[in-house]
Write a structure and sequence with these properties.
heterodimer, A: mainly alpha, globular, B: mainly alpha, 2 domains, 60% helix, 0% strand
Chain lengths: 137, 198
């Protein structure tokens, strides 16, 4: 099964999302109220280490597991989309207390009501796909 | 203390940050980029009828690894709760607990009240039938799906992966995440949670 490794990394991710408490609706509220360093510490540590990781990957020219070039995150310079879409996502993040990774993780916690939330997110993506041409990017 | 008890304890945020980078590194090494909201696009594109729209008319199989990754996250969530579940609920700051209490949301203090992941009074099927529950869960979910795709990424793709590669569009997106989150938390929540309308 060619995707087995991604399932396994996903398992690790679900564990990390839970143990980091990034899946917690309460933690997200705490973050948006600036009452704890917790979420900022997680994201800050990850970004600082991530910058180092990318510098090292570029410097050592490490190849991926099948000898191909490493893919770096290159984001298109669609600043209006970043800002406006980001704001819309921010509203939803505060409401559900979950970004996409935690949405999946919470299914594993047995929070059944998260399934209609995911379906609604898929409808949101579908709606975006339908009206993309009319939105600023 | 055995190994299971050791990793069951609440993790310090720096440990969590390191572990997220480990996940990002593994995905990078396996030839992909860390970014989960693309899975929504892939799931929409799986349905053939949707591919008549430009946005979904792409090779969704290039994202099929994300569907495997998302399935793994579900399994990981189960393991994290049932095998290495924390002996105490999430320790939320006293100030947040007090402010949420004013909104009528109780933060679990003991495991019998909950693990501190989701507020029980909101995250249940019955609450979907209330205006408040419907707006927060179904409305919120819709905005997550719509906003992440418009922004071209979520917390993983922009805030962690993008910022790690010093992408300006990602910084702008993160500013947006906070504009939306702060607006919702400080201006809309008091209205939704205290108004008789909801």
């Amino acid at each position: 099964m060619k995707h087995l490794k991604f399932i396994l990394v996903g398992v690790l991710f679900g564990i990390v999302m839970t143990k980091s408490e990034a899946v917690s609706w309460f933690r997200i509220q705490e973050m948006f109220r600036f009452h704890s360093i917790h979420m900022y510490g997680i994201i800050g540590t990850a970004v600082i280490l991530g910058v180092v990781m990318n510098l090292l990957l570029k410097k050592t020219k490490l190849k991926n597991w099948i000898g191909g070039d490493i893919k770096f995150a290159e984001k298109p310079e669609t600043y209006k989309a970043s800002l406006l879409g980001g704001t819309v996502f921010g509203l939803g993040w505060a409401m559900t207390g979950a970004c996409p990774g935690p949405l999946y993780t919470l299914v594993g916690h047995g929070v059944g009501v998260i399934i209609p939330v995911i379906i609604s997110a898929l409808l949101g993506t579908y709606f975006y796909g339908r009206i993309k041409a009319y939105l600023p990017h | 203390m055995n190994i299971i008890e050791f990793i069951s304890q609440p993790w310090h945020w720096s440990v969590s940050g390191v572990m997220i980078v480990l996940v990002m590194f593994l995905l990078t090494y396996f030839g992909q980029r860390f970014g989960i909201s693309s899975s929504f696009k892939a799931m929409c594109a799986v349905i053939p009828a949707n591919r008549k729209w430009d946005y979904f008319n792409y090779d969704w199989k290039s994202h099929s690894w994300l569907l495997a990754f998302a399935s793994g996250a579900i399994i990981g969530g189960w393991i994290a709760v049932h095998v290495i579940g924390s002996p105490v609920p999430v320790e939320i700051s006293e100030t947040t607990i007090a402010q949420l209490q004013e909104l009528g949301v109780h933060t679990p203090q003991t495991l019998s009240e909950g693990m501190g992941f989701v507020p029980a009074e909101l995250f249940n099927f019955k609450s979907l039938l209330t205006l408040k529950g419907f707006i927060l869960l179904i409305g919120g979910g819709f905005l997550v799906g719509f906003g992440t795709r418009w922004a071209g990424g979520c917390t993983s793709g922009h805030a962690i992966s993008g910022l790690s590669n010093l992408q300006l569009p990602s910084l702008v997106a993160v500013v947006g995440f906070f504009i939306g989150g702060l607006f919702m938390t400080h201006l809309v929540f008091p209205f939704i949670f205290s108004s008789k309308l909801f």
